[in-house]
């Protein structure tokens, strides 16, 4: 679930600027604030005319990119390399999949399995919005080390937080909508355009959050109308068009690769299709008082907090009891389901909702929003590689699988900076040279 | 020789230098191939070693048949060769699995017996498991009633050089006696069935298979392309279900014995692996999967062997009294579990389902009563009193359909395409989760339905000219079923299915006149589903034209 938690991300960002670890400059009349690492100007002169842009249409479904609703985006898709089999990866939430994009590895390596986890050091549920939550170097840092410059323009507060000060240039997002915790796409795109014009980073990582935010709150979603959602899709398409126009008018297009994808899809549930696991777990003598739930919308992460010696028995009980609750699709022990690769932070049991349902734990009123993701129905994502650089295929559709973890290896391949020790879990989507 | 241009047929030709030891045609039922896998394909023929060894006779000696597979039509580069014994116990049919072949490769094959060499067939293996083919192309056919007309649709498909295989969705042959279920309102027999009675015994089924495989157009198509087949009801008898059928009466023996005979003959006479092998008598499981690299997987269903009895229907067809009802199963538990395992995220991109009967929901509210009976004669679709389902198809087994669609939705699957026959008409449909509110809400996939090769359709039943009374019916159906995007109740013919990573497209071809053995073929419509959309859209032109 993408509901914002109490984050200190912006306080951390301000501290970085206050203490001189980043330099803040306001760009243009709109006062767009971009902070940069020291010596960024020197780094900018290094290297190549190649540019890579990663645009994340947060929460967009692949079937929503139609010529009628999103003409600019669909034209980009049709003109480049399209991966119709692309998927988000567990847990199908915003933070872990953005981290997978930039690290190229699964959560058991990156350390970020979900938006919301139990922090066993404090015993509290929290968002994974701290820079230190990512435990491996990202492709951002890899490019930096190769003398290339990077930029992040991330509309969501917790994405700003988790990627922290890694990029050479970072947008300080504003204005932030109080309830959603994100900056509207019009402002985000203004920042992206300003960063391209002023800082011209080799890699720019952009998150556009309106489609997701309108999807979460769209009360017409369960009825199939999706009025607010459709308006957001059309509006975001305009922003994508502005970005492409800048690349073309400035001459960057022919040296650019533009990766467009989503971090997850979206599913809508009727108000009465709530899954409430807490009563079932609390009624069990073994589990009562010893399970903490991190609600991730379409997925619940269950943590055993009782005697570690009883973990196996507790997991078996959690799986059995959860599986019997109406609306539950499946419950998994990650240790017995290697394909999940969520790692120890991702819970002792992962429970998925059926399509059209959502979790609301620990309380029935914990999750009031109709639009959710995290469960398998929200795995399909749009994923295509566009741009005018000669390495980008033109008008090709691939039947190969693709996933969010493929972004980092694709970017690394594009710039020829190699793979980290241990390699990537993902694969470059570019054809071999 | 091989089928060449339009109108060509496969005819028996002895290999150069071969010396005929018999004075009759040993290979009078042609040759065939089927179920292509990356490294193997089924090869089939039937030999007539003596004049008395006629199909179903149980007479004739055991003989040895040699088979060869080559990369060239002159058999200068023979890559596989073998010998197999056959005899009256299996009606002198021959079925071998040619193994250790190369993926995605065209091959030629032939048989030799008693000094005579068979016609040369051509086949093709499937792409390797992880290959990413740029495209696949299939012929798609169903419902070929020999008494109702000529198999020109098969001949025109045989003339194409661009097919990887032919998918036959059932009703490959019909059980009826001459004078029953022939051409049009009068049930005229364009060609009478052999034997001249409803097929019931093993000998009957064998003779009927032999008659169909004597048809030159069908022989040409078998010789030219590998087949991937499933059965519907008429391979046994009309409206079959697990323990009976509408067209099975008590004086015809037990249904179990009749079905066993039908299945036995099918196993002998069709180029298919039943229960995963080419042996006969080792099982009759027909549902199976064929994979075509990372691009597509084709799951062929058997919707007659495991289904509960059809619910009672207000339609005029003499369906027995209610049994399973909408909560009954059409797939059976084992097949449903298997199908759900095949429809998975990690598999190939396009999940094609060879589906003998329609799965799209079809409901009616306002159809003129005058047209109810004729429509039901063709399709069994229309409930006289407004009940909103067709009980011989998935509409009569809504619990199974709901389970399957929920699986597709819950797992976030895309690109599921049902390929369907049975109802003698062409359809292109979305598959809404909730037909009542569609197009609000999502679709589970699409369904593309080919028309019949010859079996009667709406205009044949009503006796009206094409594109007259049917137009009103089609309009009413589509008005009441917004997910039905294309419907043609009038034509006979075949379809071509083209599969690429971008989209799956079906082209519908119609024949000019099923009573004309030289009937022409023409394109009439094309519909496609783009990857990821789960909906169909009209396409402007056929492929390969």
Automatic annotation (TrEMBL), chain A:
Pfam families assigned: Phosphodiest
Q: Which SUPFAM superfamilies match?
A: Alkaline phosphatase-like
Q: Which organism is it from?
A: Nocardioides flavus
Query: InterPro entries, from UniProt?
Result: Alkaline_phosphatase_core_sf, Phosphodiest/P_Trfase
**Name by which UniProt lists this protein:** Alkaline phosphatase family protein
């Amino acid at each position: 679930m993408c509901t914002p938690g109490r984050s200190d991300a912006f306080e951390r960002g301000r501290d970085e600027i206050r203490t001189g670890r980043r330099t803040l400059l306001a760009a243009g009349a709109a006062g767009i604030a971009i902070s940069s690492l020291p010596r960024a100007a020197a780094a900018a002169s290094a290297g190549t005319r190649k540019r890579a842009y990663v645009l994340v249409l947060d929460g967009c479904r692949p079937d929503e990119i139609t010529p009628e609703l999103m003409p600019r985006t669909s034209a980009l898709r049709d003109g480049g390399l399209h991966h119709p089999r692309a998927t988000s990866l567990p847990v199908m939430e915003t933070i872990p999949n953005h981290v997978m994009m930039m690290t190229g590895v699964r959560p058991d390596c990156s350390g970020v399995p979900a938006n919301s986890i139990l922090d066993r050091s404090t015993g509290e549920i929290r968002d994974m919005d701290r820079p230190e939550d990512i435990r491996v170097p990202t492709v951002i840092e890899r490019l930096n080390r190769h003398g290339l410059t990077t930029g992040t323009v991330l509309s969501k507060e917790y994405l700003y937080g988790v990627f922290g000060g890694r990029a050479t240039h970072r947008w300080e997002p504003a204005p932030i909508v109080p309830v959603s915790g994100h900056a509207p796409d019009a402002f985000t795109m203004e920042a992206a355009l300003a960063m391209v014009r002023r800082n011209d980073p080799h890699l720019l990582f952009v998150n556009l959050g309106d489609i997701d935010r309108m999807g979460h709150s769209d009360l017409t979603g369960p009825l199939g109308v999706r009025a607010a959602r459709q308006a957001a899709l059309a509006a975001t398409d305009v922003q994508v068009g502005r970005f492409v126009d800048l690349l073309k008018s400035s001459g960057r297009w022919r040296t650019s690769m533009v990766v467009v994808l989503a971090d997850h899809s979206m599913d809508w549930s009727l108000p009465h299709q709530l899954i409430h696991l807490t009563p079932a777990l609390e009624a069990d003598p073994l589990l009562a008082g010893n399970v903490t739930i991190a609600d991730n919308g379409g997925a619940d992460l269950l943590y055993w907090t009782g005697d570690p010696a009883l973990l196996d028995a507790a997991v078996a009980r959690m799986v059995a009891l959860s599986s019997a609750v109406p609306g539950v699709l499946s419950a998994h022990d990650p240790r017995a389901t290697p394909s999940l690769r969520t790692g120890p932070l991702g819970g002792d049991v992962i429970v998925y909702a059926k399509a059209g349902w959502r979790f609301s734990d620990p309380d029935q009123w914990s999750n009031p929003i109709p639009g959710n993701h995290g469960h398998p129905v929200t795995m399909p994502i749009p994923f295509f590689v566009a741009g005018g650089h000669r390495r980008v295929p033109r008008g090709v559709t691939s039947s190969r699988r693709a996933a969010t973890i493929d972004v980092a290896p694709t970017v690394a391949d594009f710039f020829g900076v190699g793979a980290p020790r241990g390699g990537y879990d993902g694969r470059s989507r570019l054809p071999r040279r | 020789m091989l089928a060449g241009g339009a109108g060509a047929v496969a005819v028996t030709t002895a290999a150069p230098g071969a010396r005929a030891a018999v004075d009759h045609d040993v290979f009078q039922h042609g040759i065939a191939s089927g179920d292509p896998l990356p490294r193997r394909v089924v090869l089939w023929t039937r030999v007539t070693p003596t004049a008395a060894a006629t199909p179903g006779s149980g007479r004739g000696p055991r003989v040895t048949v040699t088979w060869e597979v080559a990369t060239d039509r002159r058999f200068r580069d023979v890559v596989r060769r073998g010998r197999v014994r056959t005899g009256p116990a299996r009606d002198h049919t021959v079925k071998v699995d040619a193994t250790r072949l190369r993926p995605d490769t065209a091959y030629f094959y032939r048989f030799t017996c008693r000094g005579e060499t068979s016609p040369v067939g051509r086949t093709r293996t499937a792409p390797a498991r992880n290959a990413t083919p740029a495209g696949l192309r299939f012929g798609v056919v169903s419902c070929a009633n020999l008494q109702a007309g000529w198999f020109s649709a098969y001949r025109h498909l045989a003339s194409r050089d661009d097919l990887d295989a032919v998918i036959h969705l059932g009703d490959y042959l019909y059980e009826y006696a001459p004078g029953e279920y022939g051409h049009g309102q009068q049930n005229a027999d364009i060609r009478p069935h052999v034997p001249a009675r409803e097929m019931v015994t093993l000998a009957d089924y064998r003779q009927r298979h032999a008659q169909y495989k004597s048809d030159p157009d069908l022989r040409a198509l078998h010789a030219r392309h590998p087949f991937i087949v499933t059965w519907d009801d008429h391979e046994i008898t009309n409206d079959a279900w697990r323990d009976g059928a509408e067209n099975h009466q008590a004086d015809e023996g037990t249904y179990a014995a009749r079905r066993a005979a039908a299945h036995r003959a099918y196993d002998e006479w069709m180029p298919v692996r039943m229960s995963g092998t080419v042996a006969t008598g080792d099982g009759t499981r027909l549902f199976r999967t064929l994979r075509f690299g990372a691009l597509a997987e084709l799951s062929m269903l058997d919707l007659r062997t495991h289904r509960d009895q059809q619910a009672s229907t207000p339609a005029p067809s003499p369906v027995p009294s209610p049994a399973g009802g909408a909560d009954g199963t059409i797939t059976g538990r084992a097949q449903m579990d298997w199908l759900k395992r095949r429809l998975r995220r990690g598999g190939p991109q396009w999940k094609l389902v060879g589906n003998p009967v329609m799965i799209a929901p079809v409901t009616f509210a306002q159809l003129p009563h005058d047209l109810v009976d004729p429509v039901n004669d063709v399709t069994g679709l229309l409930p006289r009193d407004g009940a909103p389902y067709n009980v011989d198809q998935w509409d009569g087994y809504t619990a199974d359909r709901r389970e399957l669609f929920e699986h597709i939705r819950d797992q976030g699957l895309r690109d599921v395409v049902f390929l369907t026959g049975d109802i003698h008409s062409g359809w292109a449909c979305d598959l809404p989760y909730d037909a009542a509110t569609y197009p609000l809400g999502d679709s589970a996939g699409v369904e593309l339905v080919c028309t019949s090769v010859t079996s009667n359709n709406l205009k044949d039943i009503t006796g009206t000219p094409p594109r007259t009374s049917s137009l009103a019916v089609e309009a009413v159906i589509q008005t009441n079923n917004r997910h039905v995007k294309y419907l043609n109740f009038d034509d006979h013919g075949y379809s071509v299915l083209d599969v690429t990573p971008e989209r799956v497209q079906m082209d519908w071809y119609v024949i000019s006149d099923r009573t004309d053995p030289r009937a022409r073929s023409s394109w009439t419509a094309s519909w496609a589903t783009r990857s990821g959309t789960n909906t169909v859209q009209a396409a402007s032109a056929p492929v390969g034209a």
